[in-house]
Amino acid sequence: MTIKLGIAPIAWTNDDMPELGKENTFEQCVSEMALAGYTGTEIGNKYPKNPEELKSFLEPRGLSVASAWFSAFLTTKPFEETKEAFMLHRDFLHAMGAKVIVVSEQGHSVQGQMETPVFDKKPEFTEEEWEKLTSGLDKLGELANEKDMSIVYHHHMGTGVQTTDEINRLMAETDPKKVSLLYDTGHLVFSGEDPIEVYQTHKDRIKHIHFKDIRKEKMEEVKTSSSSFLKGVKEGVFTVPGDGMIDFAPIWKEIEKDGYEGWIVVEAEQDPAKANPFIYAKNAREYIKSVTKL
């Protein structure tokens, strides 16, 4: 498998805030993805839940499923609850031909809370919670391995695994055969991390990549006004590659040098009424081609 380029549907309809893009249909979303030059998609809340039905829409458009988000609650709920939901998710993605499963721990997460400051109220796990998280992820990784799949952990703003130190700890305390990493440029820069350093440190564990850009002035507003993650999204803190502050050329140099194989997925949640998803998807595709030749 070489590098494949996909895009997430969250630019068309936001799963966390369904009012953003409620007017955009699933058919419009996948048609515009293909028209903009992408060959893969992640899964949104408007997508058919039946694998054969979903394939009937994706295959004529030359699209396949790269992965889909899974919310784990390993730190706050009994493992069996997460396991049961995970197996259904795993089996659906396996039926769609995906090789990786995006997992993010949502225990104590503030990312979905409209009024909670994303920086000031960021959760910190206790030692007991860290143990529950890492051991639980190893178990989920075993379940993924049963289907010749891998879990890729999504470090994320407003959660207990956001910073470089937290990512380092998670990787150090999980089994490399069972737990891999999703590398997200936007969340790293938003958090104040060095994306090059994180890539170099964990390149052997990275099996999925999100390309996301940041509008610097909007990021600063979130910090100075103690705003929430969701309000930041609505105000436009995220954008597509080539439209923000991140220089993707040195990041691409690391990815290429490392011989990365897998998906690179453009993911830039913003209000589609302000940022036409097709136009932004097309602009991102052209920018990525100019930087990577993909």
Structure summary:
This is Inosose dehydratase. The protein has helices at residues 26-35, 51-58, 79-95, 127-145, 164-172, 185-191, 195-202, 216-224, 229-235, 248-258, 277-292; strands at 3-7, 40-42, 64-67, 69-72, 100-105, 150-154, 179-184, 206-211, 213-214, 238-239, 262-266.
Structure in words:
Its cofactor is Co(2+); Mn(2+); glutathione. GO terms for molecular function: myo-inosose-2 dehydratase activity. It catalyses: scyllo-inosose = 3D-3,5/4-trihydroxycyclohexane-1,2-dione + H2O. The chain is globular, with a radius of gyration of 18 Å. With 294 residues, it is of the alpha/beta class. The relative contact order is 0.16. Helix content is 41%, strand content 16%. The strands form two sheets. The chain has a nine-stranded parallel beta sheet. A two-stranded antiparallel sheet has the order 9-10. α3 packs parallel to α4 and α7 packs parallel to α10. The protein has eleven helices and eleven strands. α4 links the parallel β5 and β6. The protein has a single domain, classed as Alpha-Beta Barrel (TIM Barrel).
What is the fold's blueprint, element by element?
Blueprint: E1 3-7, H1 26-35, E2 40-42, H2 51-58, E3 64-67, E4 69-72, H3 79-95, E5 100-105, H4 127-145, E6 150-154, H5 164-172, E7 179-184, H6 185-191, H7 195-202, E8 206-211, E9 213-214, H8 216-224, H9 229-235, E10 238-239, H10 248-258, E11 262-266, H11 277-292
Parallel strand pairs: 1-2, 1-11, 2-3, 4-5, 5-6, 6-7, 7-8, 8-11
Antiparallel strand pairs: 9-10
Enzyme class: lyase
Pfam families: AP_endonuc_2
Keywords: Cobalt, Lyase, Manganese
